[in-house]
Design a protein that fits this description.
- It is a single chain.
- By secondary structure, the protein is an all-alpha fold.
- The chain is built from eleven helices and no strands.
- The longest helix has 26 residues.
- The N and C termini lie far apart (about 55 Å).
Amino acid sequence: MSSNRSGQRPSFIESVAAEQLPTRLTWHLPDTIALLAVPAIFLGGWISSRITDDITVRTICDTIVRIAIFVAVVILNRELLGRHWRAFWSRPWKSMGLVIVGLVAIQVVISVLSALLRPLAHEATHGAQQTLPETTGLGVLVLVSLTPMVTALIEDFTFRHTLLLKFPVWGHWWSAAALVVTNALLFGAVHINNFGGEWLLTLTYAGAGLLMNLTYLWTRNIWHVLIMHGLNNFILAGPVTVILVYVLQAAAG
């Protein structure tokens, strides 16, 4: 948290910023784990697909792998998370207000880009996501519904922190802009399976990634993007949503 020499209350950004833009690259074990996290998720999915064709088993295995990576990332970054949380909570109302605005903005960006890009995309059938059978039990559905939320934290440490803020490129606007945009495109690209193999549509998530990149660079506090991203995924596919849909489907017979 920055101090204000004039004796006046620090600005919002001075209060919540928990990192400085680096002038040299530093690298530690948590950064290596964050860098390997997303490839590990893809590798785990590939291995499970070689072992079994049962989509339920594969989905459960994928969830367990992601939860394990999530736990590792949290433990290794516990000091950073605590330090950022104290700064975040020094201005709770404005911080939560920014989270809410960001949450809405993510959906606006995705919706607008989706509306613009879907008419240009091919009908993607190859590699489309498989869904769990309708007979899947509620316990499995709730377990699997944790996946989007733990993945949000993993992705934010990988893309927002390790592959963005860690790099000392901020002295030149062109290198900073290149990293921010490339990072967002890569974030969109790793969601290729969400779009049935249609690369053009990954730009919708790249847009959301760009928004979160800019938010993190502005606040330099991981909790704003973590809560924005986590809440977005929780609302769309979290346990409460899954249970509600399950109950409504059961009631409808």
